[in-house]
């Protein structure tokens, strides 16, 4: 349980640091007023990503763990020219391993995987500035960026967990910014297609509401289909139907989600693990996301995509049986910058608690042996089980709360 204790302690310390930042908001905002955003974001990356990286992996000598081992297996083999899905298993899209492999050409070490994640996180924050710059001041953006840098859901999941989920946000924002600059829907569609091929299968979920809102549907579709067909034409002769490997992840049972919380209350009679729940989860998350996008179809893109993104992927986190709370890293940026009202102490307090729970629970649950509760008696079988179940309930409840703030029930839909 050492890693759980370390993550818990770090999370509390980071939340206390965020509390100081909130307390000194007026002072910090004034100090940030005349600063260049790009320079300050780079400084933030050095202080809150590179320095922790050096402390953890160089000074303390810790070896990367968890998902990094899987990323290293994929990236190292891809860097040697092996074929994804045929020569090594991958739950990710076909370009993912090769992208990591490029970075490993610079430094052939598992720690390079972590460093790569910090760079991509920094790029996501920089792209977010260009998305929001017409709607908020530089000082306001930098203040929220400072909070983002220190929250456990970003710092720990990026530097310790080496999560890649923020890449999806980066690629959607980049697609829009390039379209805005070039005026070409083809560029927009091409970057989105590359995003799907570079990240993971769930990236396709955001394409549904974006397609519904797209005015140039034919050109949008033609480009995406053409890129997909070309990729498939290359992959199929090499790997056959093994390119479907990423879809196997949907059958992996994880926690917390609605099913893991409800299953023991119904004495294991709701069919947890069946494919029906995968499809039901997709319908609910994509449906809510699409409805949110449709309601905001006349709003600025930055507001529409932010609220749609949080609604869709936060919902997915609790209705998809293969999802787990690390996915907070997927939607934390738009949640923090757009959805949360920082004048509302309840929202802020719950966000801080949510960060701690989402960071600590996956490690705690995994070290308990990934328990699946079948009856109420299983929940109270031990103190550890009770704590695990209570954390699951809290994460699910808080996720629903933030979906409510972001999506179809939100009354305040302005940045």
TrEMBL record:
Keyword Repressor: no
TM region(s), chain numbering: 6-23, 43-63, 89-106, 113-132, 152-178, 190-212, 218-239, 276-294, 324-342, 349-367, 379-403
Keyword DNA damage tagged: no
Keywords, ordered alphabetically: Membrane, Transmembrane, Transmembrane helix
Protein name: DUF2029 domain-containing protein
Organism, as annotated: Arundinibacter roseus
Lineage summary: Bacteria, Pseudomonadati, Bacteroidota, Cytophagia, Cytophagales
